Amino acid sequence: MNNEKPKVAFICVHNSCRSQIAEALGKYFAGDVFESFSAGTETKPQINQDAVRLMKGRYGIDMEKTQYSKLLTDIPEVDIVVKMGCNVVCPYLPADYTEDWGLDDPTGKSDDEFKGIIDAIELKVKELKQRIQENKK
Q1: Residue 99: CB atoms within 10 Å
Q2: Which H or E run contains 26?
Q3: Does the CA dihedral 59-119-25-92 come out positive or negative?
Q4: Is 82 left (phi over 0), alpha (psi -120 to 50) or beta?
Q5: What is the pLDDT, as a whole number, of residue 137?
Q6: What is the CATH superfamily name and number for domain 7-130?
Q7: C-alpha–C-alpha distance, residues 85 and 104, integer Å
Q8: pLDDT tens digit string along 99-131?
Q9: pTM
Q10: For the chain, what are the domain ranges?
Q11: How does pLDDT run across 47-57, given as a tens digit for each residue?
Q12: How far is CA 106 from CA 7, 67, 116, in A?
């Protein structure tokens, strides 16, 4: 394997909430180990505003400054695909490795539910970082 960092795509249908949070936290906690992208099969005109507000308050990350809703065709080829959890059919993106985090979409739910999903994404991003580090040859 070359010395380039693996590229990880966090995908869901709308690319407006969970995958955007995962992209932001991937950059924040694991930018030294992998590159983070997010995308979906449909886009939304803006990132979920509750997600933007809670991420700003918690990590000081302004997702609207650095991220926007993207289609699968808008991102480069990736090494790892992480599906956020689609109740319907998850988008398909070719990759060497794929996993599904099976997270509920917190859109329209309470801040507490949102924070629970953000906590879960943070934990999973850190676990993914550790696994990638351990698999490096």
Answers
A1: 13
A2: helix 18-30
A3: negative
A4: beta
A5: 45
A6: Response regulator (3.40.50.2300)
A7: 7
A8: 999 999 999 999 999 999 999 999 999 999 999
A9: 0.93
A10: 7-130
A11: 999 999 999 99
A12: 26, 19, 9
